[in-house]
């Protein structure tokens, strides 16, 4: 009965959030119509001053760049080519590394899904590494070992040293020509692994492959439903565009593959990486991607290599995850700036540089934009609220249309709710990440519930 009550409560929350979203957007459209005279006067006032004119010019330039960049991504998206799975005899020997910390039952589900993969057993090595967990993760690994036998191997780190060190141990021990990393709270499809590694066979210059990450826990909680749409845009649209350039900017920790030679060419630099004098213990996926791109390799995306992963269900956990991603993004953009404008690989490098410039603009403009936003809020609160919501309606509609086309219409409308949530509750993430980019720490590693092996 408690489960039924919880499900009903969740549905009521979802209906409330969705109806509230449409109420806000509809109200914003009406408000903009009735406030059109105030908007016109505001623009006239800005045009009458030098700073206002400069502001409008800067806004226009940024808008033009983002519009052109968006159109460029659409063109790249349609140029994206999916690599179909190669035959069994062509598949490389593959080592799958699953680092785990305080994951409990989830790591068992991950290992079972990997063992069920449609991949030749003789060519598949699955390694699970317990990174000094404080819960029953090791017991779940032992249970997986007992049920799966020689299909997997398990080991324990003597103490918790972080995900990077757990992966390092796997890289050093694995025998595969290709390394695959999978988060320990994720589940793969039956054909995921063979689809993921096939580009290494068809493209000898391929150094890394990004998998297609979907949300596993999106049936109940509201935030995972929002992130499910956001992930579709981030992976199926954005990474498809980046893949057309051979320049995917980040191979996700949830599912990624790396050519063995490319890994060992940068392995010691990667494990010893530091930032502002401190060891880097976050952003290991983005760092590895950067170092492989720097070698001149292509990094591509495989839409048909799907992994389902758990995401935070509460705002506190979501904000911590975004802070970690933000800090990593800033650090690795600094690192990328050291080679992106050099001749780091043969062929065209313009596309990769445009991707970098786009990310750089977002970082550089973080503080100016937030200051302008706060000024707008203080001086014209109604104009700010109504124009921002209408902007969300316009710009998020592409996400809604994209998700509707690729998946389903019902789930697509969470894109509007997510944009409202991020704009009004998480706008501070990038400025805060910049201010604290020297800090390390996983932030969400201790956010686990008690799990039982029974």
TrEMBL record:
Its EC number is 2.4.-.-. Signal peptide: none annotated. It is an enzyme of class 2 (transferase). This is Glycosyltransferase. CDD domains: CESA_like. It is found in: Cell membrane. GO terms for molecular function: glycosyltransferase activity. The chain crosses the membrane at residues 16-35, 55-78, 354-376, 382-403, 415-435.
């Amino acid at each position: 009965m408690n489960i039924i009550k919880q499900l009903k409560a969740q549905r009521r929350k979802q209906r409330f959030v969705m109806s509230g979203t449409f109420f806000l957007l509809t109200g914003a459209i009406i408000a903009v119509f009735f406030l059109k005279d105030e908007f016109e006067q505001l623009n006239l006032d800005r045009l009458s001053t030098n700073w206002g004119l400069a502001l409008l010019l800067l806004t226009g330039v940024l808008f033009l760049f983002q519009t052109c960049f968006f159109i460029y991504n659409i063109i790249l998206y349609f140029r994206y080519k999916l690599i179909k799975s190669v035959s069994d005899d062509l598949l490389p020997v593959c080592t799958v590394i699953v680092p785990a910390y305080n994951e409990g039952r989830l790591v068992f589900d991950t290992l079972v899904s990997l063992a069920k993969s449609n991949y030749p057993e003789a060519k598949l090595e699955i390694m699970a590494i317990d990174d000094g967990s404080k819960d029953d993760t090791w017991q779940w690994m032992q249970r997986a070992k007992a049920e799966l036998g020689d299909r997997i191997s398990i080991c324990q780190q003597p103490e918790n040293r972080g995900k990077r060190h757990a992966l390092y141990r796997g890289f050093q021990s694995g025998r595969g020509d290709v390394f695959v990393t999978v988060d320990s709270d994720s589940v793969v499809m039956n054909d995921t692994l063979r689809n993921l590694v096939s580009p290494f066979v068809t493209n000898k210059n391929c150094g890394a492959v990004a998998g297609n990450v979907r949300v596993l826990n999106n049936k109940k909680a509201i935030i995972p439903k929002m992130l499910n749409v956001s992930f579709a845009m981030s992976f199926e649209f954005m990474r498809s565009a980046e893949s057309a350039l051979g320049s995917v900017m980040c191979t996700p920790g949830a599912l990624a593959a790396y050519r063995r030679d490319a890994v060992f060419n940068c392995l010691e630099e990667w494990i010893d990486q530091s930032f502002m004098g401190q060891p880097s213990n976050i952003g290991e996926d983005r760092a590895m991607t950067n170092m492989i791109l720097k070698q001149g390799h292509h990094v591509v995306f495989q839409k048909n290599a799907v992994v389902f992963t758990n995401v935070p269900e509460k705002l506190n956990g979501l904000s911590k995850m975004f802070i970690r991603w933000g800090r990593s993004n800033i650090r690795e953009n600094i690192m990328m700036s050291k080679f992106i404008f050099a001749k780091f690989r043969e062929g065209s490098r313009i596309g990769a540089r445009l991707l970098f410039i786009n990310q750089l603009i977002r970082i550089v403009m973080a503080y100016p934009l937030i200051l302008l936003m706060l000024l707008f809020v203080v001086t014209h609160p109604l104009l700010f609220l109504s124009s921002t919501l209408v902007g969300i309606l316009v710009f998020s509609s592409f996400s809604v249309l994209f998700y509707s086309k690729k998946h389903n219409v019902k789930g697509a409308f969470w894109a509007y709710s997510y944009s409202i949530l991020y704009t009004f509750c998480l706008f501070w993430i990038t400025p805060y990440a910049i201010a604290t980019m020297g800090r390390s720490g996983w932030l969400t590693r201790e956010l686990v519930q008690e799990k039982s092996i029974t």
